[in-house]
Design brief:
Blueprint: E1 5-8, H1 14-26, H2 43-53, E2 60-65, E3 71-79, E4 88-95, H3 104-119, E5 124-130, H4 134-142, E6 146-157, E7 160-170
The chain binds coenzyme A.
Length: 175
C-alpha cells in the first residue's frame, strides 16, 4: 500500500507547492494547461492565497504528501466569487510522475469532493481535461463526473491542437 497522506494546504506549504507546480510545468506532454514558460504565482502570493482559503467553504487546495512530507500531488478547487456562481467550482490536479497510477489522484479528488459536501455551499464541480487523457477521464468518471461537451482545439501545446472535454459533478440536486 503506497504511503501518502492528504490534507488541505496552508501558508507554510507555499514553497513546496510551487516546487511541485514548477516540476509539472516542465514535464513534456504533462496533460495540463500550464507549460514551462507560463508564469506561476510568487511564494508570497501563494502564502496569501492559502491563508485566505483557510476560511473558504468553496475553495481549497488539497496536497498529497509522501512520508518525508514532500508534495507528491495537488488538487485545487476554485469556487466562484459572485453570488450567482459561488455554488460552482473548477478543479485542477497533478500528481508527480513517479507517483501516478498508485491511487494518489483518486484520493485527492475524493478529498475535494468530501470538502465540497461538507462545506454546504458547492453544488457543482467542473473541470476540463484534454480529450485524449484517458487515465484522468477514467478517474473522473469513476468518481461520478459526467461529460458535458467538447471544446474543439481549445489548447495548443507540444506542437499540436488539443480538444478539451468538459465534465461536471453535481454535489446535490440544484433547486
Ligand atoms: C490524471 C492524474 C491526476 C490521475 O492520478 P493518478 O494518481 O495517476 O490516478 P490513480 O492512480 O488514482 O487512478 C488511475 C486510474 O486510471 C486507470 N488508468 C491508468 N491508465 C489508464 C488509461 N490509459 N486509460 C484508462 N484508465 C487508465 C488506472 O487503472 C486507475 O483506475 P482504477 O482506480 O479504477 O484502478 C495523474 O495521472 C496526473 O497527474 N497526470 C498528469 C497531469 C494530468 O493529466 N492532470 C489532469 C488534468 S485534467
Amino acid at each position: 500500500m503506497p504511503d501518502f497522506t492528504i490534507r488541505p494546504a496552508g501558508p507554510d506549504d507555499a514553497a513546496e507547492f510551487l516546487r511541485h507546480r514548477r516540476m509539472i510545468a516542465r514535464e513534456p506532454n504533462n496533460g495540463i494547461i500550464q507549460g514551462p514558460d507560463d508564469p506561476l504565482p510568487t511564494e508570497a502570493e501563494m502564502r496569501e492565497r492559502f491563508a485566505q482559503t483557510a476560511h473558504s467553504a468553496n475553495s481549497v487546495t488539497m496536497l498529497a504528501l509522501d512520508s518525508d512530507q514532500h508534495v507528491i500531488g495537488l488538487a485545487g478547487l476554485h469556487g466562484g466569487s459572485r453570488q450567482a456562481n459561488r455554488h460552482t467550482a473548477t478543479i485542477g490536479i497533478a500528481v508527480s510522475p513517479e507517483w501516478r497510477g498508485q491511487g494518489v489522484g483518486t484520493a485527492l479528488m475524493q478529498a475535494i469532493i468530501d470538502f465540497a459536501r461538507q462545506g454546504g455551499v458547492l453544488k457543482r464541480l467542473e473541470l476540463e481535461v484534454i480529450s485524449t487523457n484517458e487515465r484522468a477521464i477514467h478517474v473522473y468518471r469513476k468518481l461520478g463526473f459526467v461529460p458535458e461537451g467538447l471544446h474543439r482545439r481549445k489548447l495548443f501545446k507540444d506542437g499540436q491542437f488539443h480538444d478539451n472535454l468538459s465534465m461536471a459533478l453535481f454535489i446535490a440536486a440544484l433547486d
